[in-house]
Design goal:
Length: about 400
């Protein structure tokens, strides 16, 4: 044992002897260093941890399954390794892959080597600013902090609260407006129509897929997971209850990101006709390959019979090719179609209905995704000008009888 605590009631209350194992001398005799400490048991444990770190007495290894001892020499690397053995599988495949990339690129060979007990919020914030100076963006540093915070919190729990969590009180560095990512722009109706036409000419599957995304606002993972049984052509509707995510080893079909994401959406006649046309194409492909297209087949699958879902990244690449072919500005992305949906519907349905259609958990997201509607913005500006000029009443005001309303 590298260190021990022994209560010394014969000296007085709340008195402890802290002992540190220093190894053996040339004659093989055990060497210790002892210190008397006055305070609570928790304070004594923290002081022992500090002394052990100062003496560099414990090897930096991941605690094994048998002992599961977590102590002052535990590094960030140890904590993340322990997390991967116990709890990492609870992450979604997308999050696990993102965290693993963050770990390998930004943590493993830098702050990952540091002992948790030796880190302070000052050290961590200085490390964040070093990442920023090295070119890391706002989102990258935010993910770095998330990985560090979760791993150090677990190490603290597994150590019986002996270890601190130096990430808790840290703040992310600030970024100027120029370094902030550009907001997603909702494309115009003309741009969307041009992209859909180009996509149809490139590949009927992705032409219909992008038509459905634009018409329904579903996410790319939700589109990839659609099966023919989800399409109700008679009632012109689609059921969204699964999503495809990319994980190690291939695409994985899972439940959507939130309960609100499970929904039934009405579709327009043109989109239903496009889906039925695609079904005939997919049935002909399956027959040519000696198989059949069942209702459980994936709608936009490239495999005969629809046995495999497409990768979400494949849909994004298809959109990019169609956008380039249509000569639409590069600031329009596949995700822009959700913004197009939200903005277009803003003058048609209330926010609550838009929230349900797009599968958001809160109404706040409806406001976040909605671009300014130019005509409404102009009416708002004109009205405010009339109020400020006294030509229209403001809140709680009435025009005088001798001033006619405009």
């Amino acid at each position: 044992m590298a260190g021990s605590i022994r209560e010394r009631p014969e000296i007085g209350p709340n008195v402890y002897e802290l002992r540190i194992f220093l190894g053996r001398d040339a004659g093989g005799r055990v060497r210790h260093r002892s210190r008397t400490f006055h305070g609570t048991r928790r304070q004594a444990e923290r002081e022992l941890a500090r002394l052990l770190v100062a003496e560099e007495v414990q090897p930096s290894v991941v605690p094994d399954e048998a002992t599961r001892t977590w102590g002052p020499a535990t590094t960030v690397k140890d904590a993340i390794a322990g997390w991967k053995e116990n709890g990492w599988e609870d992450l979604s495949p997308v999050t696990a892959r993102r965290y693993d990339i963050i770990w390998k690129l930004h943590i493993r060979d830098t702050i990952g080597r540091r002992k948790i007990a030796s880190l302070s919020p000052y050290d961590v914030e200085k490390y964040f600013r070093q990442l920023r100076s090295g070119g890391a963006g706002r989102e990258t540093i935010r993910y770095v902090r998330s990985v560090l915070h979760r791993s150090c919190r677990l190490a603290r729990k597994w150590s019986g609260n002996t270890l601190p969590n130096p990430i808790t009180d840290t703040e992310l560095p600030s970024f100027d407006l120029a370094s902030a990512p550009a907001p997603v722009r909702a494309p115009t109706a003309q741009e969307v129509r041009a992209i859909l036409t180009a996509a149809e000419e490139l590949d009927v599957r992705y032409g219909v897929c992008l038509r459905l995304v634009a018409a329904s606002g579903i996410r790319r993972g939700e589109a990839a997971a659609l099966r023919w049984s989800d399409i109700d052509s008679e009632k012109a509707a689609v059921v969204v209850d699964e999503a495809v995510v990319t994980a190690e080893g291939g695409a994985v079909v899972k439940s959507p990101k939130t309960r609100a994401s499970i929904r039934r959406l009405a579709l327009d006649t043109g989109t239903i006709e496009a889906l039925l046309r695609l079904r005939r194409v997919q049935e002909a492909l399956a027959a040519a390959c000696g198989t059949t297209l069942g209702d459980d087949g994936f709608v936009f699958s490239a495999a005969p019979g629809g046995s495999l879902p497409p990768y979400p990244d494949t849909i994004s690449r298809a959109f990019t090719k169609a956008r380039q072919a249509a000569q639409v500005a590069p600031d329009v992305h596949l995700h822009s179609l959700r913004h197009f949906q939200a903005t277009t519907l803003d003058v048609v349905i209330p926010e609550r209905q838009k929230q349900a259609r797009l599968g958001w958990a809160t109404v706040h997201m409806a406001r976040h995704y909605t671009d300014t509607v130019e005509e409404e913005d102009r009416r708002a500006a004109d009205h405010l000008g009339q109020v400020l000029d006294g030509d229209a009443p403001g809140t709680g005001e009435w025009l005088s009888p001798d001033r006619p309303a405009t």
